[in-house]
Amino acid sequence: MTDLAVPATAEARRPMMGGEVAVHATGDVRRAQLSAVLDRMEAWASRLTRHDPASELMRCNAAPSSRVRVGPTLTAVLDWARAAEGLSDGLVDVAMLDARLAAEAGVESPPPLSASRRWSLDRGPRASTVRREPGVRFDLDGVAKGWLADRALAITPGRSALVDADGDIALRLDAGDAWGLGVADPRDDDELLAVLQFRGGEAPGRFGVATSGTSVHRWAHPSGDTHHLIDPRTWRPAATDLIQATVVAASAREAEVLAKTAVIAGTARAMALLDRPGVLGALLLTERGELHAAHGMVRWLA
Hints:
eight-stranded antiparallel sheet
């Protein structure tokens, strides 16, 4: 996702989560205030990453016990992960780290013997307890990025604001402001697939925009290429006719989950899955080069 018409009077950027995170805002806002938002995001992300053995997530994954105490940030994201599972009809499952690592290595990863609900969360006022079957390890990935974008937008000052959490975007627009976002074409790094235009109405509006696809995080192996979108029904990279899906929703976390769901599901099922309240538009690119603007997406196309 690319910022185009950005009416920002202040912005701050920082490498984070394997990419770059940016915060923009209009109105009487100083860059230092946005840097403070990035500080908070970095603190949250440090607890949720799988790339640091010392993160709270990885300490939970490495714990030998079937019951692990976790703090409020990890609790909140795991809580959202369970909701995301329901929102996606089970196609988004964060308890598949081993399948993701197998895809990266190009080896087989046998699915678990039991059903997908292999873990639960007992919530407490200051800490919660994760209950899980032996071997369950979490990979929060995009689920965490969407959550981070929404959480950061809630504390971002200014009249209008945009938080770009490495491609998962949370946007707040006041009346009179507009924001343009370019959707990258996965077939050509120098081209845009579409340009989305958002305008503030009579009252501040909030949007989430996210893109997911099989063209990023790909690995070439002698047995064939793999990608990072794992189908929980097979524990293998999804066999799908969609290269990419962009979803506009009421929040970044919903947009991220539904874009990923669409790609895993494939075109035919994605159309039905995305026909629900909260979805404000979808742009689907098939492997045959067909581009579908669905569920109200036309209103956002510039």
